[in-house]
Amino acid sequence: RSANTSQAQVTFADAKVNGQTPVGGYPGIPFQFGDPEKRYQGKLTITPFPNHTIAGSYMKINEGNTNYIYPSAAANFDAAGLISRQLPEDTMSISYNGVLTKDLFLEGLFSNRHFTFENSGTTYTDLINGTIIRDRSRGNIRGNSATFCGICGPEKRDNQDILVKGTYFLSAGSLGSHSIVAGYDNFDGKRHANNYQSGSNYRLFATTTSLYNGDVYPSFGSNAIVYYTPIYTLTQGTNTRTNSGFVNDRWQLNDRLSFNLGVRYDKNDAQNSIGATTANDSAFSPRIAANFDVTGKGDVRVAASYAHYVGGLQDSQQDGASSGGQPAIFEWYYGGPNINVGVPAGTVPPVSKADAMLQVFNWFFAQGCPDFSTCSVPLIYASVPGLNRVITQTLKSPYAREYTVGVNGNVGSSFSYRADFVRRDFHDFYNLVIDPQTGFVSDVTGKKYDLGIIGNTNDVQRNYTGLQTQFQYRWNWLTVGANWTWSHTLGSFDGENATSGPIQNDSQTYPEYKQVAWYAPYGSMATDQRHRVRLLASADLPFIPKALGNFNLGLVEAYDTGAPYGAVGTVRSYLYVTNPGYITRPASVTYWYTARDAFRTDSIKRTDLALTYTIKLFSTVELFVQPQVINVFNAQGLIAVDQTVRTAVSPGTGNTFQNFHPFTTTP
């Protein structure tokens, strides 16, 4: 059993540092985040016959979060986003290992896992308490209500895996020996989720917020947005299956030369949340490697390999065009009277938060919205899953090609080394296309929407280049070592983020309003870490009599370079583009004002110490004690910074910026 509790801060536009109030006058709201977890686990191993073993295990986890906020690094302007949720989980597995003959081994595995999000969202569904407010002037920080709907039903994510694998050893005389592995794997993932974005299905994007007598009040002006996310069809549950077969031969030709030859076949079979087939593609993944002992003594060994790795089909993507459990998205600009706009903070009592929201909704409903047959407010964005998002061809699994060249060996009996060069190229990214050729669709009322096609693309780039090295030296009671990885991840599309996992590339979504040079520039990616160094030392203290036990002092010196980031904001490119026929056009698009890797967070250094004491009390009983000191010198560094960029789209309080022509002007 374990229970973890940590301190956190709900902050506003700026980070709270060392207890100081950030710029802008908003105090941080301290709260305690709790993550208590009880874990129960049992395991049973039996040998019904000689050389045959069956093992079964069961694990149940009761985990709950108190004062949880989504996402975990979110900034809120009040504590209304804090919730208490439960994350129950259980896993059962049965494995088999058997020796059938002296040359043939058989393995089998069955596992089944259940995982659920319970109460993961707001407990209110009314317009006032169930609606999220987001501040456009402060990076869309949120407040008033928690993200998602906790009382609208749990979300379940379950999976099952069946694996059978056989190993056969073959001696081929002058052609060496073979260790041949062949098997079959069936993975079945299921998800049942109605993805309500809020309790009321609304979010209000406020122009800004202001502080008065310790409370925060929203302001709604001409660039405020009403954001509506209804779910029209409840989910039936998704099913994503992958059937795989594989064979691999480790061929030892002689004492100095060996090969590894293998291939894997994966066949996807996926149904979305309304039961429609979205993927039935297949792919072969070849793998080949060679190792050669140059001297025949292990002093210098060289190796090279090529591998093709296919990622698992992501349920969030294959279900992206389904209406089942997925929210539609509609956005309108607020066009009513200004509310709390232009009032200096702290001078005049503002309109209360609830009354301000009620005024916005009263105006919105008075325009006949959100009924599209009567709504008189122009849409600025619309997305209807299952209607204007479709998968026209079977969705493919993204894959990577990996090339490696390395050398390793020993110098004498005390020193060993290894160095590997690695190159990976990524392909078949998930993609969304909306252009004049994709056309449009209409709903039952005759309202038209731009049609988006979900698929794969290789028009964006992502690659990894790395040099991985290891060194170790042993001398009597002392062992020292070092690991150093130099790497560089480059590209124009990250392909994933922390909250959603895999994401769709949208460079081909309304492409007339974008230019690759400033919308998706090529450079170091967010995951790029140039240097990762570990220096290690372990010493058995020789001056302590062995009768008292064994004392070992361990040291780890760590150094990690920071992560890149750039000044990325938004721009109103539609002001300078003639609409080629879209029903809606993007109100703003991403604009990189610098290179995507113009800045980096701090490099992080750390020194850890451990003293390990062991003593044998009886022939079968040993005592083990290990106190540790982490970050001995209290080194600190900045790993997250405020990356807000003020623009004409999001100027912030009291600021004014000009729009500029992004295709002809450098701001």
Written overview of the protein:
The protein is globular and about 85 Å long. It is 3% helix and 50% strand. With 667 residues, the protein is mainly beta. The strands form 8 sheets. It has a 23-stranded antiparallel sheet that branches. The chain has a 6-stranded mixed sheet with strand order 8-7-11-14-20-21, covered by helices on one side. A 3-stranded mixed sheet has the order 22-28-25, with no helix packed on it.
How is this structure best summarized?
It is built from three helices and 42 strands. By secondary structure, the chain is mostly beta strands.
Helix content: under 10%
Q: State the end-to-end CA separation.
A: 56 Å
Q: Which sheet architecture does the biggest sheet show?
A: 23 strands, antiparallel
Mean pLDDT: 90
- How many E strands? 42
Percent of sequence in beta strands: over 45%
The shape, in one word, is globular
Which parts are unreliable, with pLDDT below 50 for 5 consecutive residues or more? 1-25
Q: Helix count, per DSSP?
A: 3
Rg (C-alpha, Å): 29 Å
Find the structural class using helix and strand composition. mainly beta
